[in-house]
Design goal:
Layout lengths: L5 E5 L5 E5 L6 E5 L6 E2 L10 E4 L5 E5 L6 E3 L2 E2 L5 E4 L4 E4 L2 E6 L15 H8 L30 E4 L4 E4 L5 E9 L5 E8 L6 E4 L2 E4 L4 E8 L10 E10 L7 E10 L5 E3 L6 E4 L6 E9 L5 E9 L4 E5 L8 E2 L1 E6 L4 E10 L10 E11 L7 E9 L5 H19 L6 E4 L3 E2 L6 E6 L10 H9 L2 E8 L5 E4 L8 E6 L5 E8 L1 H5 L5 E2 L3 E5 L5 E6 L5 E3 L3 E9 L3 E6 L2 E4 L7 E7 L4 E8 L7 E10 L4 E8 L2 E3 L4 E8 L3 E5 L3 E3 L2 E6 L5 E9 L2 E12 L15 E8 L2 E3 L5 E9 L4 E6 L2 E3 L5 E7 L4 E9 L2 E12 L6 E6 L5 E6 L17 E8 L3 E9 L2 E9 L3 E9 L3 E4 L3 E3 L2 E7 L4 E9 L4 E12 L8 E8 L2 E7 ...
Parallel strand pairs: 3-4, 13-20, 22-30, 32-39, 41-47, 49-55, 57-63, 68-74
Antiparallel strand pairs: 1-2, 1-11, 3-5, 5-6, 6-9, 7-8, 7-10, 10-11, 12-14, 14-18, 15-17, 15-19, 16-18, 19-20, 21-23, 23-28, 24-27, 24-29, 25-26, 25-28, 29-30, 31-33, 33-36, 34-35, 34-37, 37-38, 37-39, 40-42, 42-45, 43-44, 43-46, 46-47, 48-50, 50-53, 51-52, 51-54, 54-55, 56-58, 58-61, 59-60, ...
């Protein structure tokens, strides 16, 4: 036996190593990682594979990984489960065998020094009353006694039942009523103390209640069918807490009674077969019993055999003597105990040709719970003092003598000229000698006889291979000699000797000791790279791989599930182009016959999607006054499309546009390239214009220097074309000429035109400068044609005829007075920055124009009338032919403009309908925070700078949470720029605050408040 506990490690190649188990360290780690105590660097073994705990006996092994296959005694180990180890137990780890060698036997606690070796470990275990089952779940920590009730006036709970009874795998449920006794909305949490939380279900686990509101929560308890669900009384506590009432809780004691259940298990008898002789009178076995119930239970064990020829003795802890034939013991729930049983035949035979076999059973009965008894079978063989073994021994001795004299050399000599080569393919010489005796010895005759029938075979095996015949008996005809051979790799040689005797008995084949030959391995070297900078390429961009490999016999390129074997032309160096559309890892795998495993090198290539680049995105200026414009300039490369918000438009990759924001605006430019995007943002702050007292120069109306029509009269039926000429001085915004069936706008300041008329027409020239204008009329009259005179010829004294006019009577024209033209309302409109045109239509009394105006805004009514004697704005009296009226809109209303002439006989109307929209309320403050400093409370909040011109200040509300008081206003801040306030309440604890903004109601003219701030702030609760 070793002087220290050891692990004997047997490699797949047959090499053996030993590892001392350090008692001071206590644990031994096994795995591939170099930091392990036992390093097994082969595939299928995890970096940290298993750990052996040898701090106390019996030792235990815990498997840490599911990789590969790890067995103990042929049984596969389960991960994360502790398994006991005994002396000479073998652990198989992917071809490696680890055998535990203990320096001394584990001391046995059984009274008999002749105990079975496997019983020593069981006997050394603690008794059932004190044994801890480390692999079983322990009962969760509970309460020592029923806790006293703890009530609370803010957290009120009600229970219908305070004692619950439940069986395992069943559920008991109780309704818990929760009442919010406080003055604020609060949430309540329910939990159960004193039980494993996996037993407990609270539905719902949290409720939210208003002041005085109640809710019901169901508490369900389902103990599992496990020994940890101990039968008996379990004191519990149902606790209700609320984060809104810190430090307050309601705690009610509850008694849970778990009823018992009964279940047990009996393991196999170990060992099942026993052999006794004259020297060893009794056999010993162990029967394991496990109480799987949840209460302490008595058991009875009985032993009997078919013939009644054996005596059974049970060794029970606590008993000073062994109990014959039957024994009783009690096991706590979840515990197991191995009971030693001694079986002794009553009578023994002196002479017999075979052993006597006794078949027996050991029956275990649970004395409670009506469980079926369990029986296990065993067998005891009793050998006689004198039997067939003695004759077999004599025969064996004679056979051994024949074998000794005639068998071939059991260990023929074999030697190699070298056992390690500096390079592969180096030749070595193998010398062998299979002679049984020296030729000069007296036994030379036997040596020659053995050599006559001798057959030699030389074999070779690589490290990971099988034995192969290197030289046959026909090639090795001499019992001694030498041969030359080139080992392909590190391995072993052995010489096997045979003759006619070994052909009859395979065990007599002679085999030389193995001669190991080590070939110095040469590791293949790989250089592997790409022409991509940082091994990163864009999708669709070509990339080339380059490699150089030395000392390799095979080379393979692997990528994306493809394994390509490279031929001789690319074995040492090569290159390969690729176009990638996703991340890809390329791996070169090289190998040769001398290196034990393949060498590989990986080259990961990352493929990136091209992202659009925002070269420039400028918005200038970034601070403007309302009414001013900004310039937006951008340039983007590598994008499919560009979108600018809040303009809501898609533009070219490069451009320059303008915009006139009315409020603070966050301009965002988004560039798209497939699924890839890039964004940039610029903020423009819009200030409200500050009124100034600098007098604004009054614009002057244009002057009409000339407006005439030529000719002023035309005869009906003549050419009827007249010329209009005009000249206007001063600043103008528009020049137009109007007539009943004519309107010309956008004329030059000095110009003339020709028009055709067929009736008397009044032309009006109007020159505008904004809202100011001047008008001048010019009339052309169309006359009826005059009568014609035909001359009558007469004779003069000379005989020359003369013409005497003869008048042909023509009807005298009748002149009808021209009708007076109707007045003309050129326009009647509403204007203003907050005025929006919505619709226009013809009403029964004249045209109607509709406008939408926000309450409190300013609207300007403007009009111009021609051919009128009088203009009236209903509600405002007589007005000028061209004028305006300013209004403050506080209601929806329709305004009527009337123009008349001809003493009121001719009259036309126009209407402007103002539809008032409700004013937009300013937003409330936000992010109110605070802190208690000495005897004061310092509050701070935030507000929107873009809306500061809409408010007058802030108002702070406070409530006393401790007494359940309502919120009342405590202070008003009249400066919109002040966002802090210091309060001095007494005491400072238990206070709640929120803030509102104050603004002027444009309709009533009174102060109004916004909604409350988006959050409230609470000072620490009072103790």
């Amino acid at each position: 036996m070793p002087t220290h506990d050891q692990l004997e490690i047997i490699c797949p190649s047959g090499e053996i190593e030993f590892y001392d188990l350090d008692p001071e360290k206590g644990v031994t780690n096994i795995g591939r990682h170099p930091e392990n105590d036992v390093v097994i660097d082969v595939p299928g073994v995890a970096s940290f594979h298993a750990v052996i705990d040898h701090r106390q006996r019996p030792y235990h092994i815990v498997l840490l990984s599911e990789e590969g296959e790890t067995t103990l005694g042929g049984q596969r180990l389960a991960p994360n489960v502790s398994t006991g180890l005994r002396d000479w137990d073998a652990i198989e780890v992917n071809g490696y065998t680890l055998i535990l060698l203990e320096s001394e036997a584990v001391p046995a606690l059984a009274p008999s020094p002749e105990s079975h070796p496997h019983l020593e470990e069981e006997a050394a275990a603690p008794t059932p009353e004190t044994t801890a089952a480390p692999l079983l779940l322990q009962r969760p920590a509970g309460l020592a006694a029923l806790p006293p009730d703890q009530t609370d006036d803010l957290i009120v709970t009600e229970f219908p039942d305070r004692e619950w009874t439940v069986a395992v795998e069943q559920t008991v449920a109780c309704q818990v009523t929760i009442v919010n006794g406080g003055g604020i909305v609060a949430s309540f949490d329910v939990r159960v103390e004193g039980l494993d939380q996996s037993w407990v279900t609270v539905s719902p686990p949290q409720v939210n209640l208003n002041e005085g509101e109640r809710a019901t929560v169901t508490v369900s308890i389902s103990p599992p069918r496990l020994p940890t669900s101990r039968a008996g009384v379990h004191p519990l506590a149902v606790v209700v807490t609320s984060p809104n009432y810190p430090g307050r809780m309601s705690r009610m004691g509850v008694t849970l009674i778990v009823t018992p259940y009964y279940e047990f298990a009996v393991g196999e008898l170990s060992p099942k077969q026993q052999r006794v002789s004259w020297r060893r009178r009794s056999g010993e076995a162990v029967i394991p019993i496990t109480n799987k119930g949840n209460s302490e239970t008595p058991f009875r064990l009985e032993g009997e055999d078919d013939e009644g020829g054996c005596r059974f003795e049970f060794q029970v802890s606590g008993e000073e003597v062994s109990l014959v034939r039957q024994a009783e013991l009690r096991l706590p729930p979840g515990k197991d105990f191995s009971v030693p049983v001694r079986i002794t035949p009553v009578s023994r035979r002196l002479v017999a040709l075979r052993k006597r076999v006794y078949s027996f059973t050991v029956t275990t009965t649970m004395l409670e719970g009506a469980q079926t008894p369990r029986s296990v079978m065993g067998q005891l063989k009793s050998a006689p003092l004198i039997g067939p073994g003695l004759l077999a021994l004599i025969t064996l001795c004679l056979a051994a003598l024949v074998v000794f004299l005639l068998r071939p050399n059991p260990e023929p000599g074999l030697e190699a000229s070298i056992t390690a080569t500096s390079m592969p393919n180096e030749k070595l010489t193998l010398s062998y000698d299979a002679s049984r005796f020296a030729d000069s010895s007296p036994e030379g005759v036997l040596n020659s006889l053995n050599a006559l029938f001798l057959k030699l075979t030389l074999e070779y095996k690589a490290r990971d291979g099988e034995w192969q015949i290197l030289r046959t008996p026909s090639e090795l005809t001499r019992p001694a000699g030498a041969i030359a051979h080139i080992p392909p790799a590190s391995g072993w040689y052995r010489l096997r000797a045979e003759n006619w005797l070994s052909a009859l008995l395979a065990l007599l084949k002679g085999t030389s000791r193995e001669v190991a030959v080590y070939v110095t391995p040469i590791e293949p070297r790989i250089e592997f790279e790409s022409d991509a900078e940082g091994n990163t390429v864009l999708v669709g961009q070509p990339v080339t791989l380059y490699w150089e490999v030395s000392d390799a016999q095979t080379l393979r390129l692997e990528y994306s599930g493809i394994k390509e074997t490279l031929q001789d032309a690319e074995l040492e160096s090569g290159q390969r182009p690729f176009v990638l559309d996703k991340d890809t890892t390329f791996t070169l795998v090289a190998g040769n016959s001398s290196w034990p495993q393949e060498v590989q090198k990986s080259l990961p290539l990352k493929v990136l999607m091209p992202t659009p680049v925002i070269v420039r995105f400028d918005v200038n200026p970034q601070t403007i006054t309302q009414g001013e414009s900004v310039s937006i300039n951008w340039e983007v490369t590598g994008a499919d499309s560009v979108r600018i918000e809040p303009l809501g438009r898609e533009d070219l990759p490069q451009g320059d546009i303008g915009d006139q924001p009315r409020e603070n605006t966050d301009y965002q430019l988004t560039a798209y390239k497939g699924d890839a995007t890039n964004r940039a943002a610029r903020v423009v702050y819009v200030n409200t214009p500050v009124p100034t007292h600098t007098p604004t120069p009054t614009p002057a109306a244009p002057e009409i220097q000339l407006f005439e029509v030529t000719p002023k009269e035309v005869v009906l039926g003549d050419n009827q074309e007249v010329r209009l000429a005009w000249s206007v001085t001063g600043e103008t915004t528009n020049i137009e000429i109007t007539a009943p069936d004519l309107k010309l706008s956008g004329l030059e300041a000095q110009d003339s035109i020709n028009v055709t008329v067929d009736e008397t027409t009044l032309f009006v020239l109007t020159a505008y400068n904004g809202e100011l204008s001047r008008s001048t009329p010019a009339e052309v009259r169309v006359l009826e044609p005059t009568p014609t005179v035909t001359p009558v010829p007469t004779l003069t004294p000379t005989g020359t005829p003369t013409t005497t006019p003869t008048t042909t009577p023509t009807p005298t024209p009748t002149f009808t007075p021209t009708p007076f033209p109707l007045p003309v309302i050129a326009y009647f409109i509403a204007e203003g920055s907050d005025v929006t045109f919505t619709d226009s239509r013809d009403g029964p009394n004249g045209p109607i124009s509709e406008y939408s105006v926000e309450a409190g805004s300013t609207a300007v009514l403007s009009w111009e009338v021609t051919d009128a004697e009088k203009v009236t704005l209903l509600g405002f009296g007589d007005q000028a032919f061209k004028d305006s009226q300013t209004l403050i809109v506080r209601e929806s209303k329709t305004y009527q403009l009337t123009a008349e002439n001809n003493g009121g006989q001719n009259q036309v109307n126009a209407f402007v309908q103002i539809n008032m929209t409700p004013p937009q309320m300013p937003r409330p403050p936000y992010n109110i925070t605070g802190q208690v400093v000495a005897d004061t409370v310092e509050l701070e909040w935030s507000y929107y700078r873009a809306e500061m011109d809409k408010i007058l200040g802030f108002r702070i509300y406070r409530a006393n949470v401790a007494t359940g008081g309502d919120f009342v206003p405590v202070h008003t801040v009249t400066d919109p720029l002040v966002w802090t306030w210091v309060d001095s309440p007494s005491p400072t604890c238990g206070k709640a605050y929120y803030v509102v903004a104050i603004y002027l109601d444009v309709i009533t003219g009174g102060e109004k408040e916004t909604d409350a701030s988006d959050n409230s702030w609470y000072s620490p609760p009072c103790p």
